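We emphasize that the prediction below concerns an isolated chain of 145 residues; any contacts that depend on oligomerization or on bound cofactors are therefore not represented. The input was used exactly as deposited, without trimming of termini.
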Amino acid sequence: MASPNPVDDLGMACSNVTLDDEEARGLVFSNGTNVSQPMAQKTRSLVGRILNENPINFPVMQQLFASVWKPVKGFRIRDFGPNFFWFQFFNEKEKDRIYNKGPWSFEHNLLIITKVELGSNLRDVPLFSTDMWIQFHNVPRGLMS
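Result of the prediction step, given as a token string:
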């Protein structure tokens, strides 16, 4: 007689699954790249972090940047943890345009983005500062440069 709940059957079957040491290390490709440590494979990449303590709505962020940036050849965003993202562009000029037109924000939170070098570990890229212009009004002439 079959169990009344197929979810329970699946749970029982999965409870006996174990990983050996080799499987627990993660998927390793022939070039030695481990999936758990994302590496920049193309120079058409940006890595970014949204300055917010709370996690953001990733699908909404993807839709917003797609509609604002409008890259002709497209791009892909990968989520690598709380508010940490990898932006992969299919065109170098579009990546440079997005980078140079910043800073960007999402839901009033600053998005810090930077270019990554080929082979860089994306988790090691420092994302603590960004350049921005600030305009001051009514500054006395002696203090202007």
